[in-house]
Design brief:
With 345 residues, the protein is mostly beta strands. It is built from three helices and 23 strands. A hairpin with a 2-residue loop joins strand 3 and strand 4. The two termini are 27 Å apart.
């Protein structure tokens, strides 16, 4: 998602000028966190196709080999000898409008593809790789061990992607940044939904620190598997507290909240609180300053080690529909999952 920590609550969000705004402003639609999956490939002899969608940055393990050769963190095909090119089909967990992509060849130096193309479509059934697709990124040159960014102007949502590489080789990661388009069922609009879930389109907008763990997992499904599966800040040595801002999947009335400190035993926060607001439109930098003055949804509550904390009823203020929340922890520590449940507005 291209997130960066904030040095303080008053400084603007730092953006690397070499990185396009779409990386910071939109969620990665191709993330497994949203249920996206690499379902078919022309070939993945050297490196499994599933690795290309992993959320963590690609790594390089010197001297590590498997039965097919050098182990590489990404999708890699064998050397093509009969003409043609290789391709990969991706099913998005949540349909969305693509705003830009990052084709990352990190650690692929003598085995990267010279070019790549990304296409998409919306289909209720698995599409034919050889069928008609809409171009999202036309054939673009690739280089060794680098991020390759391309903006996308197609306004229509897609739920399938086809990455073509020419003619063969390896890609470490594919990031597809865009806006989720969630089609709510009649039952969902009438009942309770998880407003914060990444799979539903919830996303992290900003945070002041995320030194440890994997901050994106805060909105994931299920309980954390270990202490690295969640949001954890460094030890705070100055006054104040740590915080994170979440954009809900859709505006809604929050009726209950879960704060899960699974596996955080000697480093869980002492207390937490939530503020919330209905925000029509605002840049992330502006939201940080605004969020300090949002009304309280949940007053300060004590937390315990390795436990699910539920808050509802009289614990929550009647704020009406909200679209964004600021989750405060006091003074620092780690939280595995944050879940906000309620009714769509």
């Amino acid at each position: 998602m291209g997130l960066r920590p904030f040095p303080s609550e008053t400084e603007p969000m730092h953006r690397d000028p070499a990185v396009p705004d779409f990386v910071y402003d939109y969620v990665n639609l191709a993330s497994p966190l949203l249920g996206s999956e690499a379902v078919a490939a022309s070939d993945d002899f050297f490196a499994d196709k599933a690795r290309i969608l992993q959320d963590q940055p690609a790594t390089f393990l010197p001297g590590v080999f498997d039965e097919h050769g050098k182990w590489m963190d990404g999708w890699e095909t064998r050397r093509r000898r009969g003409g043609g090119n290789d391709w990969l089909l991706i099913r998005l967990g949540v349909p969305g409008v693509v705003k830009g992509v990052d084709i990352d060849t990190s650690h692929f130096t003598g085995n990267y593809p010279p070019g790549a193309m990304l296409e998409g479509l919306f289909s209720e059934t698995p599409p034919d790789p050889a069928g008609r697709w809409r171009p999202l990124v036309r054939t673009t040159p690739l280089g060794p061990s680098a991020h390759h960014y391309a903006a996308v102007s197609d306004p229509e949502p897609v739920n399938w992607l086809k990455l073509s590489i020419f003619p063969d080789g390896g890609v470490a990661r594919l990031r597809v940044h865009g806006a989720p388009v969630r089609a709510w069922t009649e039952a969902e609009t009438a009942g309770e939904v998880e407003l914060s879930a990444a799979r539903n389109g919830g996303r992290i907008i900003a945070y002041n620190d995320a030194h440890y763990g994997d901050v994106l997992r805060l909105l994931a499904e299920g309980r954390g598997t270990n202490m690295g599966d969640g949001w954890e800040t460094r030890r705070r040595r100055e006054p104040g507290n740590d915080w994170i801002i979440v954009a809900l999947a859709a505006p809604g009335i929050v009726e209950r909240i879960e704060v899960d400190t699974a596996h955080f035993k000697g480093n869980f926060p002492d207390r937490c609180s939530l503020q919330a607001a209905l925000v029509e439109q605002a840049a992330p930098q502006a939201l940080v300053a605004q969020s300090m003055f949002w009304p309280q949804l949940l007053g300060e509550k004590a937390l315990e080690a390795d436990a699910i904390h539920g808050f509802a009823g009289a614990d929550l203020a009647a704020l009406g529909p909200v679209s964004h929340v600021r989750f405060n922890i006091f003074p620092d520590g780690g939280v595995s999952r944050l879940r906000l449940f309620g009714r769509l507005a």
